[in-house]
Design a protein that fits this description.
alpha/beta; TIM Barrel; three-stranded parallel beta sheet; 15 helices; 319 residues; six-stranded parallel beta sheet; globular; 9 strands
């Protein structure tokens, strides 16, 4: 009988009770079933992990997180939220690990909080939810965060949030009422986060910090499919140095969060290599069973399956 593979799910979300109190006026998904699972980091979550055969979740605060708060509030909330998440991991160290919530509205404080959580609490990196009060993360004011992450040798996970209001007005307003998910997983999240990834490469931050590691979920928000064309297009601008594709494949990792498609996975493997891809579910925004069912028939050899399901995450996060 085949041994069950060890499975690590890398983009799995929760709500911190104190941070959640400050979501008033923000766009937050509030379906009761979803909120129940975001609020739970105990019995219900562990039960659903066991049912799906998921051995370990890397927990991260759900969107919108701290990125839409003022600097003072974000800094104040970050430390408490991370300390409470540390207690959750300590209660179940064989089932949970953690990405920090960092107060990006104050970049220096965010870098310091990243270092504190990694060096003192054993966190594995940080998750950033979308733009910081409308500003893309490639802006040089945020580079101290990238510098610190590279020095600590931990990744930053770029997670989606709602598109910029001006983008919503220009691109989506005609269909949002009938198809609200258009702003999220159906398309808006993809465009916003892929743009974030493109801008990070073009900004030069990867050249400035050669050890920088960035994770993007949802199979790279479509970027692996476009790597050749983006590189070809940018090549027309006559810039010397590494191609967009080479920089992306050297510094970026992707996960399968909420994207359980054989053709899409194989495209990513062919473009980036299996060592850059990690399994995720996107719980509880996506239920565990579809992901668990998908991995039963992965179109990969046994060695590559192990890399996808846990090996790459163990190596990147030093689990």
């Amino acid at each position: 009988m085949a041994t069950k593979p060890f499975i690590i799910a890398l983009e799995e979300h929760y709500f911190d009770a104190e941070v959640k109190k400050h979501f008033t006026g923000m766009d937050v998904q509030t379906a009761p079933r979803l909120v129940e699972r975001l609020d739970d980091v105990g019995a219900l979550r562990l039960k659903e992990m066991d049912e799906a055969g998921i051995d370990l979740q890397v927990l991260s605060h759900a969107n919108p997180g701290l990125q839409k708060m003022d600097a003072e509030t974000a800094v104040r909330l970050a430390r408490g939220a991370n300390d409470r998440l540390h207690e959750t991991v300590r209660a179940h160290p064989d089932r949970f690990a953690a990405f920090a919530a960092i107060p990006t509205p104050d970049p220096k404080a965010a870098a310091d909080e990243l270092e504190r959580t990694v060096t003192r609490l054993g966190f594995k990196g940080a998750m950033v939810n979308g733009l910081t009060n409308g500003v893309f993360f490639d802006d040089k004011r945020f580079w101290p965060i990238f510098e610190r992450a590279a020095a600590l040798d931990v990744p930053l996970y770029m997670h989606p949030s709602l598109p910029h209001p001006a983008v919503i007005e220009a691109y989506y307003k005609d269909y949002v009422q009938q198809y609200p998910s258009l702003l999220r997983a159906a398309w808006g999240f993809t465009v916003e986060t892929a743009t974030q990834g493109v801008r990070l490469v073009l900004s030069g931050v990867c050249d400035a910090y050669p050890n920088l590691k960035i994770i993007i979920g949802h199979l790279g928000e479509g970027l692996p499919f476009y790597l050749w064309r983006i590189s070809m297009g940018l090549g027309r601008d006559g810039k010397s140095g590494k191609s967009f594709r080479d920089t992306f494949c050297e510094h970026f990792y992707i996960t399968t969060s909420g994207f359980f498609s054989d053709p899409a996975l194989l495209c990513c493997v062919m473009e980036m290599g299996i060592d850059r891809i990690m399994f995720s579910v996107d719980y509880p925004f996506v239920d565990n069973p579809p992901g668990a069912k998908w991995i039963e028939t992965l179109p990969l050899c046994a060695e590559d399956q192990v890399k996808l399901l846990s090996g790459n995450a163990k190596r990147l996060l030093k689990l």
